Amino acid sequence: MQKTTYIFKPSEGMRTMPTAIFGSIEAGAIYALMALGVYLSFRILDFPDLTVDGSFVTGAAVSAVLIVGGTDPFIATLAAIFSGFAAGCMTGLLHTKGKINPLLSGILMMIALYSINLRIMGKSNVPLLAEETVMTKLTAFWQSLGLDEMLQTVLSATGFVPKTWGILILMLILAFIVKVNIDLFLKTDIGLAIRATGNNETMIRSFSADTDLLKIIGLGLSNALVAFSGALVAQYNGFSDVGMGIGMIVIGLASVIIGEAIFGAKTIVRATLAVIGGAILYRIIVTAALRVEFLEAGDMKLITALIVVCALIIPKILEKQRERQRKKRRAVQKAYEGGEQLAVIKTDS
Amino acid sequence: MLLLKQIHKVFNEGTPDEKVALKNMELYLKPGDFMTVIGSNGAGKSTLMNLISGKMIPDLGEVLIDGKDVTMVKEHKRSRLIGRVFQDPMAGTAPAMTIEENLAIAFSRTSSRGFKKGVTKMRRSFFQEKLETLHLGLENRLQAKVGLLSGGERQALSLLMATFTEPKILLLDEHTAALDPARAELITALTKEIVKTYQLTTLMVTHNMQQALDLGNRLIMMDKGQLIFQANDEQKQCLTVEKLLEEFQRIRGEKMNSDKAVLI
Protein backbone atom coordinates (compact mmCIF):
# COMPACT_ATOMS: atom_id res chain seq x y z
CA MET A 1 0.00 0.00 0.00
CA GLN A 2 1.28 3.36 -0.87
CA LYS A 3 1.28 5.86 1.95
CA THR A 4 0.15 9.33 1.03
CA THR A 5 2.47 12.05 2.23
CA TYR A 6 1.14 15.45 3.05
CA ILE A 7 3.07 18.68 3.30
CA PHE A 8 0.75 19.79 6.09
CA LYS A 9 -0.43 17.41 8.73
CA PRO A 10 -4.01 16.46 7.88
CA SER A 11 -4.93 16.14 11.53
CA GLU A 12 -4.42 19.86 12.05
CA GLY A 13 -5.53 20.81 8.56
CA MET A 14 -5.72 24.23 7.02
CA ARG A 15 -8.98 25.04 8.76
CA THR A 16 -7.35 25.40 12.16
CA MET A 17 -4.54 27.58 10.87
CA PRO A 18 -6.15 30.78 12.24
CA THR A 19 -6.39 29.21 15.68
CA ALA A 20 -2.73 28.25 15.57
CA ILE A 21 -1.70 31.74 14.49
CA PHE A 22 -3.94 33.23 17.16
CA GLY A 23 -2.15 31.08 19.72
CA SER A 24 1.28 32.08 18.46
CA ILE A 25 0.47 35.78 18.66
CA GLU A 26 -0.78 35.26 22.21
CA ALA A 27 2.40 33.41 23.21
CA GLY A 28 4.52 35.85 21.20
CA ALA A 29 3.20 38.79 23.20
CA ILE A 30 4.21 37.07 26.45
CA TYR A 31 7.64 36.06 25.12
CA ALA A 32 8.08 39.64 23.88
CA LEU A 33 8.89 40.68 27.47
CA MET A 34 11.75 38.18 27.47
CA ALA A 35 12.90 39.46 24.07
CA LEU A 36 12.87 43.05 25.39
CA GLY A 37 15.09 41.86 28.25
CA VAL A 38 17.50 40.27 25.78
CA TYR A 39 17.42 43.50 23.76
CA LEU A 40 18.55 45.42 26.87
CA SER A 41 21.54 43.18 27.51
CA PHE A 42 22.48 42.21 23.95
CA ARG A 43 21.94 45.50 22.13
CA ILE A 44 22.01 48.27 24.76
CA LEU A 45 24.78 46.90 27.00
CA ASP A 46 26.47 44.92 24.21
CA PHE A 47 26.60 42.00 26.65
CA PRO A 48 25.57 38.55 25.33
CA ASP A 49 23.95 37.42 28.57
CA LEU A 50 23.30 33.67 28.84
CA THR A 51 21.80 34.06 32.33
CA VAL A 52 18.48 34.26 30.46
CA ASP A 53 18.20 30.45 30.18
CA GLY A 54 18.25 30.25 33.96
CA SER A 55 16.45 33.42 35.03
CA PHE A 56 13.49 32.64 32.78
CA VAL A 57 12.92 29.44 34.78
CA THR A 58 13.63 31.24 38.06
CA GLY A 59 10.73 33.56 37.28
CA ALA A 60 8.49 30.62 36.42
CA ALA A 61 9.57 28.63 39.48
CA VAL A 62 9.16 31.46 41.99
CA SER A 63 5.71 32.40 40.73
CA ALA A 64 4.54 28.77 40.48
CA VAL A 65 5.68 27.82 43.96
CA LEU A 66 4.13 30.93 45.49
CA ILE A 67 0.85 30.45 43.64
CA VAL A 68 0.61 26.80 44.73
CA GLY A 69 1.35 28.02 48.25
CA GLY A 70 -1.68 30.30 48.10
CA THR A 71 -0.09 33.68 47.34
CA ASP A 72 -1.99 36.10 45.15
CA PRO A 73 -0.80 35.45 41.56
CA PHE A 74 -0.03 39.14 40.97
CA ILE A 75 2.21 39.30 44.04
CA ALA A 76 3.79 35.98 43.04
CA THR A 77 4.60 37.46 39.63
CA LEU A 78 6.08 40.55 41.27
CA ALA A 79 8.28 38.30 43.41
CA ALA A 80 9.38 36.51 40.24
CA ILE A 81 10.43 39.84 38.72
CA PHE A 82 12.60 40.61 41.75
CA SER A 83 14.19 37.16 41.66
CA GLY A 84 15.15 37.77 38.04
CA PHE A 85 16.60 41.16 38.96
CA ALA A 86 18.74 39.51 41.64
CA ALA A 87 19.98 36.86 39.21
CA GLY A 88 20.95 39.52 36.67
CA CYS A 89 22.77 41.54 39.30
CA MET A 90 24.76 38.43 40.26
CA THR A 91 25.90 37.99 36.66
CA GLY A 92 26.83 41.69 36.62
CA LEU A 93 28.84 41.30 39.82
CA LEU A 94 30.68 38.25 38.46
CA HIS A 95 31.59 40.19 35.35
CA THR A 96 32.47 43.60 36.82
CA LYS A 97 33.88 42.82 40.25
CA GLY A 98 35.10 39.29 39.51
CA LYS A 99 36.49 40.38 36.12
CA ILE A 100 35.06 37.27 34.46
CA ASN A 101 34.43 37.37 30.72
CA PRO A 102 30.77 38.23 29.84
CA LEU A 103 29.90 34.92 28.18
CA LEU A 104 31.44 32.92 30.99
CA SER A 105 29.71 34.90 33.76
CA GLY A 106 26.39 34.23 32.02
CA ILE A 107 27.11 30.54 31.61
CA LEU A 108 28.17 30.21 35.25
CA MET A 109 24.98 31.89 36.46
CA MET A 110 22.88 29.78 34.09
CA ILE A 111 24.31 26.55 35.49
CA ALA A 112 24.06 27.77 39.08
CA LEU A 113 20.44 28.78 38.52
CA TYR A 114 19.56 25.31 37.24
CA SER A 115 20.22 23.89 40.71
CA ILE A 116 18.66 26.90 42.43
CA ASN A 117 15.50 26.53 40.32
CA LEU A 118 15.26 22.84 41.28
CA ARG A 119 15.61 23.85 44.94
CA ILE A 120 12.90 26.51 44.59
CA MET A 121 10.45 24.07 43.02
CA GLY A 122 11.52 21.04 45.06
CA LYS A 123 10.85 18.87 42.00
CA SER A 124 11.36 19.24 38.29
CA ASN A 125 7.77 20.19 37.43
CA VAL A 126 5.09 22.19 39.26
CA PRO A 127 1.62 22.02 37.67
CA LEU A 128 -0.64 25.08 37.91
CA LEU A 129 -3.68 23.84 36.05
CA ALA A 130 -6.09 23.88 38.98
CA GLU A 131 -4.72 27.11 40.44
CA GLU A 132 -5.91 30.63 40.12
CA THR A 133 -3.28 32.44 38.02
CA VAL A 134 -2.79 35.87 36.49
CA MET A 135 -4.18 34.38 33.28
CA THR A 136 -7.40 33.06 34.83
CA LYS A 137 -7.88 36.34 36.69
CA LEU A 138 -7.28 38.41 33.58
CA THR A 139 -9.64 36.21 31.56
CA ALA A 140 -12.35 36.64 34.20
CA PHE A 141 -11.77 40.39 34.22
CA TRP A 142 -11.96 40.53 30.46
CA GLN A 143 -15.16 38.50 30.33
CA SER A 144 -16.77 40.81 32.84
CA LEU A 145 -16.21 43.60 30.32
CA GLY A 146 -18.27 41.67 27.76
CA LEU A 147 -16.04 42.64 24.87
CA ASP A 148 -15.72 39.06 23.61
CA GLU A 149 -19.33 38.90 22.46
CA MET A 150 -18.86 42.09 20.52
CA LEU A 151 -15.73 40.86 18.75
CA GLN A 152 -17.31 37.48 18.17
CA THR A 153 -20.29 38.97 16.32
CA VAL A 154 -17.99 41.13 14.25
CA LEU A 155 -15.80 38.19 13.32
CA SER A 156 -18.41 35.42 13.15
CA ALA A 157 -18.53 35.82 9.37
CA THR A 158 -14.94 34.58 9.08
CA GLY A 159 -15.84 31.40 10.92
CA PHE A 160 -12.97 31.89 13.36
CA VAL A 161 -14.04 32.03 16.97
CA PRO A 162 -11.32 31.86 19.65
CA LYS A 163 -12.16 31.05 23.25
CA THR A 164 -11.34 34.53 24.45
CA TRP A 165 -9.58 37.62 23.15
CA GLY A 166 -8.70 38.70 26.66
CA ILE A 167 -5.22 37.21 27.01
CA LEU A 168 -4.12 38.28 23.55
CA ILE A 169 -5.21 41.89 23.93
CA LEU A 170 -4.14 42.32 27.56
CA MET A 171 -0.73 40.75 26.89
CA LEU A 172 -0.20 42.99 23.87
CA ILE A 173 -1.11 46.00 26.02
CA LEU A 174 1.30 44.80 28.73
CA ALA A 175 4.13 44.36 26.22
CA PHE A 176 3.42 47.83 24.89
CA ILE A 177 3.41 49.40 28.38
CA VAL A 178 6.76 47.75 29.15
CA LYS A 179 8.13 48.93 25.80
CA VAL A 180 7.09 52.55 26.43
CA ASN A 181 8.66 52.45 29.88
CA ILE A 182 11.92 51.09 28.47
CA ASP A 183 11.92 53.88 25.86
CA LEU A 184 11.41 56.51 28.54
CA PHE A 185 13.97 54.97 30.87
CA LEU A 186 16.65 54.90 28.18
CA LYS A 187 16.17 58.64 27.71
CA THR A 188 16.76 59.53 31.37
CA ASP A 189 20.20 60.58 32.58
CA ILE A 190 20.84 57.14 33.99
CA GLY A 191 19.43 55.46 30.87
CA LEU A 192 21.68 57.52 28.62
CA ALA A 193 24.64 56.50 30.78
CA ILE A 194 23.69 52.81 30.45
CA ARG A 195 23.47 53.16 26.66
CA ALA A 196 26.85 54.88 26.56
CA THR A 197 28.32 52.09 28.70
CA GLY A 198 27.42 49.61 25.97
CA ASN A 199 28.58 51.98 23.25
CA ASN A 200 31.84 53.56 24.47
CA GLU A 201 33.05 52.63 27.93
CA THR A 202 36.15 54.86 27.90
CA MET A 203 34.01 57.86 27.11
CA ILE A 204 31.35 57.34 29.74
CA ARG A 205 33.94 56.71 32.44
CA SER A 206 35.56 60.04 31.62
CA PHE A 207 32.13 61.59 32.30
CA SER A 208 31.99 60.32 35.88
CA ALA A 209 29.78 57.28 35.37
CA ASP A 210 30.37 54.12 37.39
CA THR A 211 30.31 51.63 34.52
CA ASP A 212 30.37 48.65 36.89
CA LEU A 213 27.23 49.78 38.65
CA LEU A 214 25.48 50.66 35.38
CA LYS A 215 26.22 47.22 33.95
CA ILE A 216 24.90 45.54 37.09
CA ILE A 217 21.69 47.62 36.98
CA GLY A 218 21.29 46.99 33.26
CA LEU A 219 21.69 43.23 33.60
CA GLY A 220 19.37 43.25 36.61
CA LEU A 221 16.61 45.01 34.65
CA SER A 222 17.16 42.75 31.65
CA ASN A 223 16.76 39.59 33.72
CA ALA A 224 13.85 41.06 35.67
CA LEU A 225 11.97 41.27 32.35
CA VAL A 226 13.05 37.75 31.43
CA ALA A 227 11.79 36.39 34.77
CA PHE A 228 8.55 38.35 34.34
CA SER A 229 8.06 36.64 31.00
CA GLY A 230 8.95 33.26 32.55
CA ALA A 231 6.35 33.73 35.29
CA LEU A 232 3.65 34.60 32.77
CA VAL A 233 4.58 31.71 30.45
CA ALA A 234 4.31 29.26 33.37
CA GLN A 235 0.86 30.60 34.23
CA TYR A 236 -0.17 30.60 30.56
CA ASN A 237 0.97 27.02 29.93
CA GLY A 238 -0.25 25.80 33.32
CA PHE A 239 3.07 24.48 34.63
CA SER A 240 6.62 25.42 35.52
CA ASP A 241 9.32 23.04 34.36
CA VAL A 242 13.04 23.10 35.14
CA GLY A 243 13.85 22.54 31.45
CA MET A 244 11.60 25.26 30.05
CA GLY A 245 14.46 27.79 29.74
CA ILE A 246 16.76 25.72 27.53
CA GLY A 247 17.66 27.74 24.44
CA MET A 248 15.72 30.76 25.68
CA ILE A 249 18.61 33.13 24.91
CA VAL A 250 18.60 31.95 21.30
CA ILE A 251 14.84 32.52 21.06
CA GLY A 252 15.38 36.00 22.48
CA LEU A 253 18.17 36.72 20.01
CA ALA A 254 16.04 35.38 17.17
CA SER A 255 13.23 37.75 18.15
CA VAL A 256 15.56 40.74 18.40
CA ILE A 257 17.35 40.02 15.14
CA ILE A 258 14.23 39.14 13.12
CA GLY A 259 12.42 42.17 14.49
CA GLU A 260 15.24 44.56 13.71
CA ALA A 261 15.74 43.10 10.23
CA ILE A 262 12.08 43.46 9.32
CA PHE A 263 10.85 46.50 11.23
CA GLY A 264 14.12 48.47 11.46
CA ALA A 265 16.07 49.75 14.46
CA LYS A 266 16.94 53.34 13.67
CA THR A 267 15.76 54.73 17.00
CA ILE A 268 15.16 53.13 20.39
CA VAL A 269 11.39 53.65 20.07
CA ARG A 270 11.40 51.82 16.75
CA ALA A 271 13.79 49.09 17.91
CA THR A 272 11.74 48.12 20.98
CA LEU A 273 8.60 47.95 18.84
CA ALA A 274 10.55 45.82 16.36
CA VAL A 275 11.55 43.44 19.16
CA ILE A 276 7.90 42.87 20.12
CA GLY A 277 7.08 42.31 16.45
CA GLY A 278 10.04 39.95 16.15
CA ALA A 279 8.92 37.89 19.15
CA ILE A 280 5.44 37.44 17.66
CA LEU A 281 6.82 36.74 14.19
CA TYR A 282 9.18 34.14 15.63
CA ARG A 283 6.24 32.25 17.18
CA ILE A 284 4.36 32.36 13.89
CA ILE A 285 7.39 31.03 11.98
CA VAL A 286 7.82 28.19 14.46
CA THR A 287 4.13 27.30 14.32
CA ALA A 288 4.23 27.26 10.55
CA ALA A 289 7.44 25.20 10.53
CA LEU A 290 5.98 22.61 12.89
CA ARG A 291 3.13 22.03 10.45
CA VAL A 292 5.54 20.63 7.90
CA GLU A 293 5.06 16.83 7.84
CA PHE A 294 8.57 15.60 8.76
CA LEU A 295 9.21 18.05 11.58
CA GLU A 296 8.44 17.28 15.21
CA ALA A 297 8.12 19.39 18.34
CA GLY A 298 11.61 18.26 19.35
CA ASP A 299 13.07 19.91 16.26
CA MET A 300 12.07 23.34 17.52
CA LYS A 301 15.50 24.22 18.91
CA LEU A 302 17.13 23.26 15.62
CA ILE A 303 14.62 25.42 13.75
CA THR A 304 15.33 28.31 16.12
CA ALA A 305 19.07 27.99 15.61
CA LEU A 306 18.56 27.91 11.84
CA ILE A 307 16.35 31.00 11.98
CA VAL A 308 19.01 32.92 13.92
CA VAL A 309 21.77 31.77 11.57
CA CYS A 310 19.72 32.84 8.55
CA ALA A 311 18.76 36.16 10.14
CA LEU A 312 22.43 36.83 10.85
CA ILE A 313 23.82 35.75 7.48
CA ILE A 314 21.21 36.83 4.92
CA PRO A 315 21.43 40.59 5.61
CA LYS A 316 25.22 40.38 5.20
CA ILE A 317 24.93 38.56 1.88
CA LEU A 318 22.36 41.07 0.63
CA GLU A 319 24.57 43.95 1.69
CA LYS A 320 27.56 42.43 -0.11
CA GLN A 321 25.53 41.91 -3.26
CA ARG A 322 24.30 45.48 -3.21
CA GLU A 323 27.83 46.71 -2.70
CA ARG A 324 29.11 44.63 -5.60
CA GLN A 325 26.36 45.87 -7.91
CA ARG A 326 27.09 49.44 -6.92
CA LYS A 327 30.79 48.97 -7.66
CA LYS A 328 30.04 47.27 -10.95
CA ARG A 329 27.79 50.11 -12.01
CA ARG A 330 30.45 52.61 -11.16
CA ALA A 331 33.15 50.61 -12.97
CA VAL A 332 30.96 50.34 -16.07
CA GLN A 333 30.34 54.05 -15.98
CA LYS A 334 34.06 54.77 -15.63
CA ALA A 335 34.90 52.38 -18.46
CA TYR A 336 32.27 54.10 -20.56
CA GLU A 337 33.76 57.52 -19.88
CA GLY A 338 37.26 56.14 -20.48
CA GLY A 339 36.05 54.53 -23.71
CA GLU A 340 34.84 57.88 -24.97
CA GLN A 341 38.23 59.35 -24.26
CA LEU A 342 39.83 56.49 -26.12
CA ALA A 343 37.56 57.10 -29.05
CA VAL A 344 38.52 60.76 -29.07
CA ILE A 345 42.19 59.85 -29.09
CA LYS A 346 41.65 57.43 -31.94
CA THR A 347 39.90 59.96 -34.13
CA ASP A 348 42.64 62.44 -33.35
CA SER A 349 45.41 60.23 -34.59
CA MET B 1 44.89 73.69 41.47
CA LEU B 2 46.81 70.58 40.48
CA LEU B 3 49.67 69.36 42.61
CA LEU B 4 51.75 66.24 42.10
CA LYS B 5 54.06 65.28 44.96
CA GLN B 6 57.01 62.95 44.42
CA ILE B 7 55.25 60.56 42.09
CA HIS B 8 56.87 57.22 41.34
CA LYS B 9 55.46 54.64 38.98
CA VAL B 10 57.14 51.42 37.86
CA PHE B 11 55.73 48.92 35.38
CA ASN B 12 56.40 45.18 35.43
CA GLU B 13 58.30 45.50 38.67
CA GLY B 14 60.73 42.68 39.39
CA THR B 15 60.68 41.28 35.85
CA PRO B 16 63.25 41.71 33.08
CA ASP B 17 60.77 44.14 31.45
CA GLU B 18 60.83 46.45 34.45
CA LYS B 19 60.40 50.03 33.34
CA VAL B 20 60.46 53.14 35.47
CA ALA B 21 57.67 55.25 33.98
CA LEU B 22 57.87 58.20 36.38
CA LYS B 23 60.63 59.09 38.81
CA ASN B 24 60.23 61.70 41.52
CA MET B 25 57.76 63.72 39.47
CA GLU B 26 56.79 67.07 40.97
CA LEU B 27 54.30 69.38 39.31
CA TYR B 28 52.23 72.36 40.35
CA LEU B 29 49.64 74.15 38.26
CA LYS B 30 48.11 77.40 39.47
CA PRO B 31 44.44 78.05 38.67
CA GLY B 32 44.25 79.13 35.04
CA ASP B 33 47.67 77.72 34.11
CA PHE B 34 47.87 76.13 30.67
CA MET B 35 50.87 73.81 30.54
CA THR B 36 52.08 71.98 27.46
CA VAL B 37 54.06 68.76 27.88
CA ILE B 38 56.53 67.50 25.30
CA GLY B 39 58.91 64.56 25.27
CA SER B 40 59.89 61.56 23.20
CA ASN B 41 58.03 58.24 23.21
CA GLY B 42 58.27 56.49 26.54
CA ALA B 43 59.09 59.71 28.37
CA GLY B 44 56.16 59.10 30.73
CA LYS B 45 53.70 61.65 29.34
CA SER B 46 50.82 59.21 29.01
CA THR B 47 51.52 57.73 32.43
CA LEU B 48 51.40 61.24 33.85
CA MET B 49 47.96 61.78 32.30
CA ASN B 50 46.72 58.39 33.49
CA LEU B 51 47.85 59.10 37.04
CA ILE B 52 46.04 62.43 37.10
CA SER B 53 42.85 61.01 35.58
CA GLY B 54 42.87 58.06 37.98
CA LYS B 55 43.23 55.36 35.36
CA MET B 56 46.42 54.39 37.20
CA ILE B 57 47.45 54.73 40.81
CA PRO B 58 51.02 55.82 41.66
CA ASP B 59 53.33 53.46 43.57
CA LEU B 60 54.43 56.40 45.69
CA GLY B 61 53.42 60.03 45.99
CA GLU B 62 50.25 62.08 46.03
CA VAL B 63 47.91 63.70 43.54
CA LEU B 64 46.01 66.77 44.76
CA ILE B 65 43.27 68.52 42.82
CA ASP B 66 41.89 71.78 44.18
CA GLY B 67 43.54 71.08 47.53
CA LYS B 68 41.95 67.62 47.90
CA ASP B 69 44.01 64.46 47.98
CA VAL B 70 42.59 62.29 45.18
CA THR B 71 45.44 59.78 44.95
CA MET B 72 43.19 56.82 45.76
CA VAL B 73 39.90 58.21 44.40
CA LYS B 74 38.50 56.00 41.64
CA GLU B 75 38.60 57.14 38.03
CA HIS B 76 34.86 57.66 37.61
CA LYS B 77 34.54 59.68 40.81
CA ARG B 78 37.57 61.75 39.99
CA SER B 79 36.25 62.58 36.55
CA ARG B 80 33.74 64.90 38.19
CA LEU B 81 36.70 67.26 38.54
CA ILE B 82 38.45 66.45 35.28
CA GLY B 83 37.59 67.00 31.63
CA ARG B 84 39.44 64.80 29.16
CA VAL B 85 39.98 64.75 25.40
CA PHE B 86 41.69 61.70 23.95
CA GLN B 87 43.99 61.28 20.97
CA ASP B 88 41.52 59.04 19.15
CA PRO B 89 38.61 61.18 17.88
CA MET B 90 36.36 58.11 18.29
CA ALA B 91 37.15 57.73 21.98
CA GLY B 92 35.45 60.81 23.40
CA THR B 93 31.91 60.32 22.09
CA ALA B 94 29.30 57.55 21.86
CA PRO B 95 28.79 56.91 18.10
CA ALA B 96 25.39 55.20 18.31
CA MET B 97 23.85 58.11 20.21
CA THR B 98 22.77 61.50 18.94
CA ILE B 99 24.69 64.76 19.39
CA GLU B 100 22.23 66.02 21.99
CA GLU B 101 22.33 62.73 23.91
CA ASN B 102 26.12 62.86 24.00
CA LEU B 103 25.98 66.43 25.27
CA ALA B 104 23.44 65.42 27.92
CA ILE B 105 25.82 62.74 29.17
CA ALA B 106 28.63 65.29 29.34
CA PHE B 107 26.31 67.74 31.04
CA SER B 108 25.69 65.31 33.93
CA ARG B 109 29.40 64.85 34.56
CA THR B 110 29.36 67.05 37.64
CA SER B 111 26.16 65.69 39.23
CA SER B 112 24.80 62.27 40.09
CA ARG B 113 22.52 60.77 37.49
CA GLY B 114 18.89 60.04 38.25
CA PHE B 115 15.62 59.32 36.50
CA LYS B 116 15.14 62.78 35.08
CA LYS B 117 14.86 63.19 31.34
CA GLY B 118 18.30 63.55 29.76
CA VAL B 119 17.51 65.99 26.97
CA THR B 120 15.08 68.65 28.14
CA LYS B 121 13.99 71.74 26.24
CA MET B 122 16.08 73.95 28.48
CA ARG B 123 19.17 71.82 28.06
CA ARG B 124 18.63 71.61 24.33
CA SER B 125 18.73 75.38 23.86
CA PHE B 126 21.81 75.50 26.08
CA PHE B 127 23.47 72.82 23.91
CA GLN B 128 22.57 74.73 20.77
CA GLU B 129 24.11 77.88 22.15
CA LYS B 130 27.32 76.03 23.04
CA LEU B 131 27.51 74.20 19.70
CA GLU B 132 27.33 77.54 17.89
CA THR B 133 30.68 78.45 19.41
CA LEU B 134 32.26 75.63 17.38
CA HIS B 135 31.16 77.27 14.08
CA LEU B 136 30.60 73.84 12.50
CA GLY B 137 26.85 74.00 12.06
CA LEU B 138 26.36 71.14 14.51
CA GLU B 139 23.67 73.16 16.30
CA ASN B 140 21.33 72.28 13.43
CA ARG B 141 22.08 68.56 13.64
CA LEU B 142 21.21 67.81 17.27
CA GLN B 143 19.40 64.57 16.37
CA ALA B 144 22.17 63.24 14.12
CA LYS B 145 24.07 60.18 15.33
CA VAL B 146 27.61 61.11 16.33
CA GLY B 147 28.95 58.17 14.32
CA LEU B 148 27.99 60.08 11.16
CA LEU B 149 30.29 63.02 11.95
CA SER B 150 33.81 63.38 10.54
CA GLY B 151 36.87 62.91 12.74
CA GLY B 152 37.39 66.65 13.08
CA GLU B 153 33.76 67.28 13.98
CA ARG B 154 33.83 64.50 16.55
CA GLN B 155 36.98 65.86 18.13
CA ALA B 156 35.50 69.37 18.28
CA LEU B 157 32.42 67.90 19.94
CA SER B 158 34.61 65.94 22.39
CA LEU B 159 36.43 69.14 23.25
CA LEU B 160 33.18 70.96 23.88
CA MET B 161 31.81 68.06 25.94
CA ALA B 162 34.93 67.97 28.09
CA THR B 163 34.92 71.69 28.77
CA PHE B 164 31.43 73.21 28.85
CA THR B 165 30.85 72.06 32.42
CA GLU B 166 34.02 73.91 33.43
CA PRO B 167 36.16 71.15 34.96
CA LYS B 168 38.80 71.95 37.57
CA ILE B 169 41.41 70.33 35.35
CA LEU B 170 41.38 69.81 31.60
CA LEU B 171 43.57 67.02 30.24
CA LEU B 172 44.34 67.03 26.52
CA ASP B 173 46.18 63.91 25.39
CA GLU B 174 47.63 64.65 21.92
CA HIS B 175 44.11 65.51 20.92
CA THR B 176 45.07 66.86 17.47
CA ALA B 177 47.59 64.14 16.56
CA ALA B 178 45.14 61.92 14.66
CA LEU B 179 43.69 64.72 12.50
CA ASP B 180 44.77 66.12 9.14
CA PRO B 181 46.65 69.46 9.33
CA ALA B 182 43.64 71.66 8.54
CA ARG B 183 41.44 69.94 11.14
CA ALA B 184 44.28 69.95 13.66
CA GLU B 185 44.59 73.69 13.21
CA LEU B 186 40.86 74.14 13.73
CA ILE B 187 40.91 72.11 16.94
CA THR B 188 44.00 73.97 18.16
CA ALA B 189 42.25 77.31 17.60
CA LEU B 190 39.14 76.05 19.38
CA THR B 191 41.23 74.80 22.28
CA LYS B 192 42.86 78.21 22.65
CA GLU B 193 39.50 79.95 22.58
CA ILE B 194 37.73 77.59 25.00
CA VAL B 195 40.55 77.50 27.55
CA LYS B 196 40.63 81.28 27.51
CA THR B 197 36.87 81.69 27.87
CA TYR B 198 36.55 79.38 30.86
CA GLN B 199 40.02 80.11 32.32
CA LEU B 200 40.60 76.36 32.55
CA THR B 201 43.61 74.87 34.30
CA THR B 202 44.95 72.75 31.47
CA LEU B 203 47.59 70.11 30.89
CA MET B 204 48.21 69.30 27.24
CA VAL B 205 50.46 66.55 25.91
CA THR B 206 51.63 67.03 22.36
CA HIS B 207 54.19 65.74 19.91
CA ASN B 208 54.09 68.94 17.94
CA MET B 209 56.73 71.33 19.30
CA GLN B 210 55.31 74.31 17.45
CA GLN B 211 51.92 73.65 19.01
CA ALA B 212 53.54 73.34 22.42
CA LEU B 213 55.09 76.78 21.94
CA ASP B 214 51.99 78.42 20.48
CA LEU B 215 49.63 77.32 23.21
CA GLY B 216 49.63 77.91 26.93
CA ASN B 217 51.70 79.89 29.41
CA ARG B 218 54.02 77.12 30.62
CA LEU B 219 55.96 74.32 29.00
CA ILE B 220 57.72 71.25 30.36
CA MET B 221 59.87 68.65 28.68
CA MET B 222 60.04 65.09 29.93
CA ASP B 223 62.51 62.31 29.32
CA LYS B 224 62.76 58.81 30.79
CA GLY B 225 60.18 59.53 33.46
CA GLN B 226 61.72 62.77 34.63
CA LEU B 227 61.04 66.41 34.18
CA ILE B 228 64.16 67.71 32.40
CA PHE B 229 63.22 71.22 31.31
CA GLN B 230 60.69 73.89 32.29
CA ALA B 231 59.82 77.26 30.82
CA ASN B 232 57.57 79.87 32.35
CA ASP B 233 55.59 82.43 30.39
CA GLU B 234 58.47 84.85 29.76
CA GLN B 235 61.02 82.16 28.91
CA LYS B 236 58.46 80.52 26.67
CA GLN B 237 58.00 83.71 24.63
CA CYS B 238 61.64 83.61 23.52
CA LEU B 239 61.71 79.90 22.71
CA THR B 240 61.72 78.48 19.19
CA VAL B 241 61.55 74.90 17.99
CA GLU B 242 65.29 75.02 17.19
CA LYS B 243 66.15 76.28 20.65
CA LEU B 244 64.01 73.57 22.22
CA LEU B 245 65.73 70.86 20.21
CA GLU B 246 69.11 72.31 21.11
CA GLU B 247 68.15 72.37 24.74
CA PHE B 248 66.99 68.76 24.55
CA GLN B 249 70.25 67.65 22.93
CA ARG B 250 72.30 69.58 25.47
CA ILE B 251 70.51 68.12 28.50
CA ARG B 252 70.57 64.64 27.06
CA GLY B 253 74.21 64.97 26.08
CA GLU B 254 75.19 66.12 29.54
CA LYS B 255 73.37 63.23 31.05
CA MET B 256 75.04 60.78 28.73
CA ASN B 257 78.41 62.25 29.57
CA SER B 258 77.76 61.94 33.27
CA ASP B 259 76.62 58.35 32.69
CA LYS B 260 79.90 57.73 30.90
CA ALA B 261 81.81 59.26 33.79
CA VAL B 262 80.13 56.85 36.16
CA LEU B 263 80.96 53.92 33.93
CA ILE B 264 84.62 54.89 33.59
Automatic annotation (TrEMBL), chain B:
Keywords, alphabetical: ATP-binding, Cell membrane, Membrane, Nucleotide-binding, Transport
UniProt keyword Transport present: yes
A Pfam family it matches: ABC_tran
Top-level division of the source organism's lineage: Bacteria
Annotated Gene Ontology cellular component terms: plasma membrane
Localization in the cell: Cell membrane
Molecular functions (GO terms): ATP binding; ATP hydrolysis activity
Name of this protein: ATP-binding cassette domain-containing protein
Topology versus the membrane: Peripheral membrane protein
Keyword rRNA processing (UniProt): no
First-listed, main subcellular location of the protein, grouped into a coarse class: membrane
SUPFAM superfamilies for this protein: P-loop containing nucleoside triphosphate hydrolases
Coiled-coil features, chain-numbered ranges: none
Cited InterPro entries: AAA+_ATPase (IPR003593), ABC_transporter-like_ATP-bd (IPR003439), ABC_transporter-like_CS (IPR017871), ABC_transporter_ATP-bind (IPR050166), P-loop_NTPase (IPR027417)
All copies of domain ABC transporter, residue ranges: 2-249
